[in-house]
Amino acid sequence: MNESQLIHYLDSLPKQEPAWVKQMQHDAQKDHVPIMDIQGIALLQQLIRLYQPQKLLEIGTAIGYSALRMIEAKNNLEIVTIERDQAMYQRAMDHIVDQGRQAQIEVILGDALELAVETKTKGKFDMIFIDAAKGQYRRFFELYEGTLSKNGVIITDNVLFHGYVANPDGAPKRLRNMVKKIDAYNRWLLQHQGYDTVILPIGDGIAISIKRENDYIS
Ligand code: SAH
Ligand code: MG
């Protein structure tokens, strides 16, 4: 059995998903919005159930799918999420209002590369979910890790990017630079002394980085 058969099997298992989830998945696929896939979001939800964060920062809202699904996993979770695209922002706001979650999810419209100072004023986050421009992952990590609470967790999506990160020569030319940047990020992250990181080949590749207890002494 190869890997795609395994994923196909897992995806095909029946699930009890509410109609709004199916609708958002359908809309995202139709409009080519790169939301987390079935296995990826299932892992993210399970991490939330295990870790029980009070406050979560998301970089890359898109249509609000992952934010709403994370709240599905923890009903009183508070989320601050950043999106730079006006149309995506609007769609996310509409979905959040539809689900009655506007008191819990604050969407900031703007470029996350420019919002770190403003975001700091919103308090500490127990979990940070990085899912925006793939070539900028290290910058997002370094800009926002200062907002992470003690023992916090940083989760990064798409770190294997369609398998291309493991096989850059197989990537379309236009993606090669970005794929190399993700590879550099993964290498940097795994050697980071402040975090213990594991990368799982689930969804599109998910890195889970747990902040070390004490600031390490070299
Ligand atoms: N987390 C979403 C998918 C996010 S797709 C989900 O799984 O449901 C990535 C999003 O990040 C896109 O909507 C894109 O507009 C946004 N983005 C990319 N670079 C960004 C940046 N520098 N600042 C804010 N948003 C950014
Ligand atoms: Mg993603």
Polypeptide structure, described:
- This protein is an alpha/beta fold and 218 residues long.
- 41% of the residues lie in helices and 20% in strands.
- It contains 8 helices and 7 strands.
- The termini are far apart.
- The model has no long low-confidence stretch (mean pLDDT 96).
- Residues 34-36, 60, 62, 65-66, 82-85, 88, 111-113, 131-133 line the site of S-adenosyl-L-homocysteine.
Order of helices and strands: HHHEHEHEHEHEHEE
Strand content: 15-25%
Number of helices: 8
Structural class: alpha/beta
Name the overall outline: globular
Rounded to an integer in angstroms, the radius of gyration calculated over CA atoms is 17 Å
Runs with pLDDT <50, length 5+? none
Query: How many strands appear in the DSSP assignment?
Result: 7
Mean pLDDT: 96
- Distance, first to last CA: 45 Å
Tell me roughly what share of residues is in helical segments. Answer: 40-55%
